[in-house]
Amino acid sequence: MRFLTLALALLTLHACAAPADRAAPTIAVESRAPVTILISLDGFRADYLDRGITPHLSQLATEGVRAAMRPSFPSKTFPNHWTLVTGLRPDRHGIVANRIEVEGRTDVFTMASDDPWWWNGAVPIWVDAEKAGVRTATMFWPGSIVAIGGTKAADWPYKIAGGTRPQDFLQYYEEIGTTQRVATLIDWLRRPPATRPRLLTTYFEAVDTVGHERGTDHRETDKAIAEVDAAIGALVAGLAELRQPANLVIVADHGMAAVSRDRAVALDTLLTAGDYRAIETGPYAGIVATPGREAAVEAALLKPHPHMECWRKAEIPARLHYGRHPRVPPYLCLAEVGWQVVDKSGTAFDGGAHGYDGAVPEMAALFVAHGPAFVSGRTLPTFDNPDVHALLRRLTGLPPATGTDGSDAVFATVLR
Ligand code: AMP
Ligand code: ZN
Ligand code: ZN
Fold it and tell me: What is the value of pTM for the model shown?
């Protein structure tokens, strides 16, 4: 920047000294092609945008496109981040939960799992982009450190062989603050064209973290909303300073619902200890019956319950698009929004939760898109989040994907 200022100053001096009949000097400022930046604000419920505390996001929405987006089931972080970048629903891409157990495997899938085996069921957009010669860089995103298509050795030092990653990626670490995340994106874009990424991602967890702890309507939650809004403002300012046009696609993975300790269904009051194991609990529970105890578990779960409904995995309602993947546990119990399914009585908490049916309004996720590719001032009807992948492919210049669960049709009226 300082060099540019100096060059401009010299050119201005030269122009002043030149005779009036000489042509004005032309300044060679690089004209940059637009880049695509995908930004996730974890747990940013769609209606948080109407609280009057997000000047930067609200301006982008006013000048661009906004919508309340429907997350896929389960409305959890890892399943939905993988859907947004692959266009497949969790039941097809295989990241069916934040925590997954598979019979016969010694490891359990958690948010720290980087073994490609768990992730190889789908190809994220950055892999297709890299293969098409579009350079990518991820300043955090679930799955973005995984070598897609690779294999992890079963023995120490557990080397990962093969596979494709973004050319620049960073291991998730919460202590890397919002300022540093934004600065990293801007620094990547400062590079010369040959090594500059054209598709970038970043991620901010603060709204989700505080939403869980304090619920949806607390001043600390509003503070976190304002904090991530400020990060967006800093990014927009950094791009303007660089004169870097960008198509920003700002999304949330899911919304948030207020929960309380007195709205809970306890599995230990319905089932006999030793008959079952809950792999996950919360807005929904994934349950496995002890071999030989299936009949007892089914008799207890598959009848009507207040505030909760349970199914065999093959009988989960079609609207949830869930239950075909081998990684989905045999039984699913889904709570009414605002309620929790807990393993043991007395373990429910006060605060916020997500994981419910994506169609409930509390789970609606933020969607804001802004940049040269988008028209101004439009609100789209609610759409399903696999569509974001199709939009990203279009913005990145990749051909439409076939066989995914999404389409870019919903964006037809808002793309220039
Ligand atoms: P959830 O339990 O569904 O609300 O998940 C949200 C949490 O996911 C956040 O608090 C983050 O700390 C965590 N998280 C997000 N991205 C990553 C990542 N790439 N690796 C590990 N954890 C992550
Ligand atoms: Zn989340
Ligand atoms: Zn969360």
Answer: 0.93
